[in-house]
Amino acid sequence: MRQSITHVALVVRDYDEAIGFYCGVLGFDLIEDTYQAEQDKRWVVVRPKGGQGASIVLARASRPEQEPFVGNQTGGRVFMFLNTDDFARDFTRLNAAGVEFVREPQIHDYGTVAVFRDIYGNLWDLLQLAEGHPAAV
Hints:
By secondary structure, this protein is α/β, with parallel strands linked by helices. The protein is built from two helices and eight strands; from the N terminus they run E-H-E-E-E-E-H-E-E-E. The protein has a four-stranded mixed sheet, with helices on one face. A four-stranded mixed sheet has the order 5-8-7-6, covered by helices on one side. The chain is globular.
C-alpha cells in the first residue's frame, strides 16, 4: 500500500488576500484557482516554490461557525512547517518582506528553526533540517 497527503486545507478570510500573502509575500506558486459554480466557491491551491509534497487549499470560511478558526486552526500551536534548503536566505527574505517572526532563529540538534505568523495569525516554523536528518531536503 502506498499513500500520501496531497492537500491540507487552511481556512482563510478571503481568497485574493490569502493568495497575495502566500504567493506574493511567501513566494509560493499558485497551482490552481478554479471557480466551482455548484458550490459558489473557489478551489485555490498553493505550494511552496519548488515543492513536490503536499499543497495547501486556501479554503474561505463559508459559514459563520468557521470564521473563528481563521488564524487559529490549531489553538495557538505551530500549524505548518516550511522546510527550506537555505535558512539564512529565506529568513532574510521573509524579514525584508515584513513577515512577523515571533521566535527568533534557534539551532537545535534537528536543525535551525524560527517561528513566524501568517497573515491570519497561524504559526509556522521556518525550518532547515540538519544534514543527515531523515526528512532533510
